[in-house]
Write a structure and sequence with these properties.
This protein is mostly helical. The protein contains six helices and no strands. The radius of gyration is 20 Å and the shape is globular.
Length: 175
């Protein structure tokens, strides 16, 4: 029962995120760049503070300073060169989609005896891998196209996960 609920939530979130990305592709990419910049800046500042604190106690501080400077620098680059940042993030999303899809297919194969409808999990993994490959093959298709591809992927994967959740819930033994 828990697995089907988790899959249902993941599916609903996927559909909602996908629809948002399809409706507002520019905002989707801008949000990714801003979230990355904020994270890199905060991480960089935290490492700089750690470096200063370690200096006062005579501990090795230089790795924290380097990490901090790189984080602050990455945040500045993301804010001053958002197109380059968006392109780099697109490549990371492509890699993530391929790894995620592969793991979903592995999960479907490993648990085929323990669940029904495992082909739906494999289908979700296949969609993920296809999305990642398309992004790697056509990275210059434009940032808006990438956002639309992500939206279509998220929505399609969400629908597949919802179908799997319904199938698992209906196949679960009743107490």
């Amino acid at each position: 029962m828990r697995e089907s609920s988790s899959l249902l939530v993941r599916g609903i979130v996927g559909v909602l995120v996908g629809l948002a990305a399809l409706l507002w592709p520019g905002m989707t990419l801008a949000a990714l760049v801003v979230v990355f910049a904020a994270y890199a800046l905060l991480d960089g500042i935290a490492n700089l503070i750690t470096g200063f604190l370690r200096m006062r106690t005579q501990q090795r501080a230089w790795p924290f300073f380097v990490h901090g400077v790189v984080g602050v620098g990455a945040a500045a680059l993301a804010l001053f060169y958002p197109v380059l940042t968006a392109f780099t993030l697109v490549l990371f999303v492509a890699a993530w989609a391929i790894v995620t899809g592969t793991m979903q297919i592995v999960g479907a194969i490993r648990f085929r005896r323990e669940m029904t409808g495992e082909w739906l999990l494999a289908a979700s993994g296949t969609l993920s891998i296809a999305f990642g490959l398309l992004v790697f093959i056509f990275p210059s298709a434009g940032a808006l196209t990438i956002a639309w591809m992500f939206g279509a992927f998220a929505a399609a994967t969400g629908v597949v996960l919802i179908a799997l959740a319904i199938r698992l819930r209906s196949a679960a033994p009743t107490a």
